[in-house]
Amino acid sequence: MEERPYWLAWSQIPGLGPVVLKRLQHRFGSLSAAWSVDTATLGTVTGIGAQTLKAIQKHRQAGHPTDLLTQHLQQNPYFWCMAEDAYPRMLTEIADSPPLLYYRGQVQRSENQGSTPMVAIVGTRDPSEYAKRWTRKIAYALAKRGITVVSGMAEGIDTQAHLGCLEGGGRTVAVLGTGVDMIYPPRNQGLYQKIEEQGLLLSEYPAGTQPNRAHFPRRNRIVAGLCRALLVMEAPTKSGALITAYQANEYSRDIYVLPGSLDNPRAMGCLGLVQRGAQLILGVGQLLDQLGAIPPLPAEPTPTSPEIALTLPPSQAKILKIVSQLCQQSGDDSVPFDLIVQSVDQSAGEVSGEILQLELQGFVTQLPGMRYTPTS
Length: 376
Description:
Elements: H1 4-11, H2 18-28, H3 31-35, H4 39-42, H5 50-62, H6 65-73, E1 79-81, E2 100-105, H7 109-113, E3 118-122, H8 129-144, E4 148-151, H9 157-167, E5 172-175, H10 189-198, E6 200-203, H11 215-226, E7 229-232, H12 240-250, E8 254-257, H13 268-275, E9 279-280, H14 284-292, H15 314-330, E10 335-336, H16 337-342, H17 348-360, E11 364-367, E12 371-374
Parallel strand pairs: 3-4, 3-7, 4-5, 5-6, 7-8, 8-9
Antiparallel strand pairs: 1-2, 2-6, 10-12, 11-12
Helix pairs in contact: 1-6, 8-9, 9-10, 11-12, 15-17
């Protein structure tokens, strides 16, 4: 709770995204400590340029973070920051998780801890009757199995997913592209009220935030990040659902696709996902069996546990091991990025993304000259 005012204050500064905030936290130990660091030192953090430094100075002179929090709570009484235990654990695994997450409705701690399975369902806003029927049927079955259904409360597939889950007496979570106090689209007012009573409404945007076209693609990463698996029910080749699927793949989530017809343009995006390796949904029973085979989330380790590296995805654990081995072999305390790339069977872009994840989680530290050292 002591960190909450500082997460709020830092998140209000233009030019500072989630990745940079995590770098600040890692570099200085906490965002409260970073708040008092001189601007020259802040300027050495990757991602903070001259314009951002000016914005930081301006915001630090405007008032203390605790005063900002007091004012913010008047319109936004319910939110989590990343430093709080209540913040959804699955979201902490992604590099660009929202610094603040506003909520409305019924909080279930087991969902935030990752012990209750959560599955996302997404698709086009203009689905066929076939896709609507199967979306509702699958969401109903997931609810009966005790799986929380996550979607974006948009028209079409999202709406059918929420309704099917509620009909099954289950929990559903709606991730909004507006403030949690806004109902969009307006025709979903009844659905909004049901979710508020039986589920949870989430958003990274504060109260009063109106619909904005740029917000909806951004919220898709939260839908993907919250869940262990993503179901794409129907999507044309240009669809926000495909953005969610690509993000889910980047986050190492399982992706399932409802098969569609070659004669249906609204199914072509789904067929493209199958070509990329997504799994086909061949029936409710088959899907539930596959979802049941997803290994449970490991118990969350303490930061001091020597076994913490065992919780890393295999690709990140491999790179961490290689960085340690290369340092030992060379007798140096750091290793250049190019040598790491040469030592793994991955592209430079893939290695860069994995190392960023390791850096954000505190397993490696970047030194000048694109060199990396294991964090002791």
